[in-house]
Every structure is written in C-alpha cells, then in structure tokens.
Amino acid sequence: MSEFFQPNAELIQRRWPAVAERLLSEDPGPLQADLVEGLGSTLSINGIQLTSRHDRTREAQLQAASLPVDSPVLHVYGTGLGDLQLELLQRSGLIRLHVHILSGAVFALVLQLLDQQPWLSDSRVELHYAGDLAEICLPFFALPSELVLADDFNAKIRDRLISETHLTFNNREFDPDNPEIATRLLESVEQIRVDSDAAQLFAAHAGQPMFVIATGPSLEQHFVTLRSIRGQTPRPLFVCVDTAYRPLIESGIKPDVVVTIDQRISQRHLPPEDSANITLVYMPLVAPAVLQAWQGKRYVAYSASPIFRVLRELLPRAGLFAGGSVIHPAVDLAVKMGASQITLFGADFAFPNNKTHAGWNDGDLGPQLGAARHWVLDGHGQRVKTQLNFRSYLCELERYIAANPHVVFYNSSRAGAMIAGTTFHPEFSR
Fold first, then answer.
1. pLDDT tens digits for range 185-211
2. How far is residue 424's CA from residue 36's CA, in Å, rounded to a whole number?
3. Which of 92, 239, 302, 404 is the most exposed place for a label (fewest CB within 10 A)?
4. Closest CA relative to residue 263, chosen from 279, 248, 285
5. pTM as predicted
C-alpha cells in the first residue's frame, strides 16, 4: 500500500496542502474493496464498480466524448481510477481540468492501491472537495459510481449533479406538444379570462412575515401551534400548497392563500366547502372543474415553462417561479407579496419518521415509503430516506433562497432535509 500512497500523497501535499490534510484524515477502513475481473479489471467499493471491468480506456473515451471538445475548462466530479482525467488531459486545447472529490474515503483508498501521479502531476489539474463549493460547475462529467458512493460532506453537490443530469428526462411530461396538455390549456382559456391576475397580489403584504406550509410529515407536529397562531391578531399570513390544504382544514387551521399547479389535483385535495374566504392562486394545468368549485377569490399565474408560451401571449398574466414542486411558486408568491421573512412548515423533502406526507396515507400522493432508495441529511446531520425528485425540488428551492438574500428564511423542523440558506426557527424547531 505504501508503494503507491506515499508518492501520491506527497504530490498532493506539494500542490494542494489543504486537500492533502483532509485526505490524510479520511478513513477508508470501513469500505469493502474488491478486485473485479472481466476482460480487464477494476475496483469494486461496497459492491459498486468504480469503472468498467472490461475496458476502462474505452469507457473513459465515451465519457470524455460527452464533454465539448473546444471547452478550455472542464470539471470532473469523482476521481475514479484516473482514467477519465487522463483521457481529457490528452486534449491540447484544455487549459484547466477541475477534479472534484465526491468521496474522500474512496479517493484515499485509491491512492493506496494505484499510482495516480500521471494525472495529479499535470499542471492543468486542480483538485477540490466537491462540497467546498455551493453550486456545480459547467461543463461537467460526474462519474456514476461516485454519485452513489458520495459521502455526507459532498452530498449537496451530488444532489445538484443528479438533478442536472435528469433535467431533460424530468421535463418530458411538460412537452408543449403533448395533446393532453394542449387540451387542458384550451379548456382553461375561459377560466383565465374570468379570474384575476396574480400580479394584483404582489406587494399586497409588504413587510409582513409569512408561513409557507407544505405537506411533509413534520407538519403534523405543528398543528396545535399553527391553530393557536391562526387565532391571533396580528399574525403571519398563511400560504399553503394544495396537498396541505385538506390536512390543515381537518386540523382546524384555515390558510389565507392556497397555491396549486398540478393537473392531478382534484376536489379530493381541494374540497371547496367553506372556501369562500380563502384565496386560490393557480396555474392553468389545474382542472377547470376544481377551479370553478372554489368559492373564494381566484388568481392565475404562469411559470416560465414552454407549455404556457401561447397563453402568455394571448392572455398575459404574472409569472411565478417553478422548480418541479408546488412549494416553489408558493414561496415565490410569498416573496412577491412582500414577505420580510418566511417560515417553512412541512418542507421536509424527505420521509422522516417513516412517513411520506402529513395527513395522507402512504402512497396517496405518490410513491410509497418502501420505494425510497435515496437519502438526504436532516437537520441533525443524519441520513433520512427520500426519493430523487424530492432532492431535485430541494436543490431548486435552495437556489431560489440564495437568489433572494433580502428575505429571511426559517425552517420549522430539523426532522426533514437540511435546507441551505435557511435558519432553524428558534421557537418552532426545538
């Protein structure tokens, strides 16, 4: 082991002393490492092959081909066995290759087992821990094996990498040429003409604190508190997402504003009874029957999605931020209404306490708990189960928060995902 580790470590120490110090503190001991052979061989870590076991060079060539050949700066996430780095360094036009460590323990183990000096010694290489930066860098290639093996410190960047990689796939349901979407939007035209522009709500509550209420399991621990605050004067404005509406009403908590965007929302989620004094803000994918049954004032908004392009030209209305989940336009609405501070309730992006949603049975609003194969770190720094789309929604909310530093964001619970840019509320998150 020392045959490779010492020269590898000395090289890193000379070039990146801070990285070397951290690598020396990494403990690869718990990792299960095995040699896996095929037409060639590779290293398997905890059952995950770092590279192909048949032709590592050809695999690296395929990976490199996905990156623009004329880019002077490239980013590789994950260190692997060095094959992709060596392939990219053959490009004469490459000025800088940033290699971002996704698992410190995995890299420390590789440094013990294999000579990594050929790429580490290249003056064009810069070595970092991925988690030292808050955002991903483009253009990039992320090694699939290390997206699985990423450690806790680098998990936020891993989530952003996966979200970016899946973007085209995730947007497939929102094709403007989809006949079902086209039909629904056509059905919505007359409703849009009748209802008010959400822009009328903007700046209507300038400086007022607001609660944005989602449907994560941690919401249940706040029902009593929210019911008490709802009866106070003055109080924060209550803005909730559509799936949180019924659990709130059943707990005796009437929100001020409900936000809905999804074509799958029905009167089961938004029962219209006793809704006369509640504002509904919607996007036109919502079924007209659901909108028409609502007794309160209705306001319409669009997202920047291409599916609304024709409607935006025909019937201009306000825009709200969309990032895949209804919580994004709900938060954006609160900001545009003038919120000075926003406290998030039920914004868990995870399944704490082995539950998927507050007030709904397992599977009612999507995949069942048993289908959860992924994780995020909660407010205690512990791993908690989640699903991939929740991690993408979390990434987009964190980006939105970072882009709006004039608003103070609080998280009401440590049970769900840690949300970068928020502070745990001193009263609600105890």
1. 999 999 999 999 999 999 999 999 999
2. 46
3. 92
4. 285
5. 0.90
Q: Verify that 105 and 127 share a domain, yes or no.
A: yes
Looking at residue 265, its amino acid is I
Last residue of a domain, one of 165, 193, 211: 165
The DSSP symbol for 170 reads H
Query: Which residues have CB under 8 Å from 255's CB, separation 6+?
Result: 213, 238, 239, 240, 244, 245, 248, 278
How far is it, in rounded angstroms, from Cα 141 to Cα 195?
Answer: 46
Q: Model confidence over 42-57: pLDDT tens digits?
A: 999 999 999 999 999 9
Q: Which two tokens stand for residue 4?
A: 């490779």
From the list 244, 420, 419, 395, the residue with the least C-alpha distance to 323 is 395
Contact 373, 384 (CB under 8 A): no
Sequence-distant (6+) residues with CB within 8 A of 425 are 343, 410, 411, 412
Q: How far apart are CA 81 and CA 321, in angstroms?
A: 41
- Number of domains comprising the chain: 2
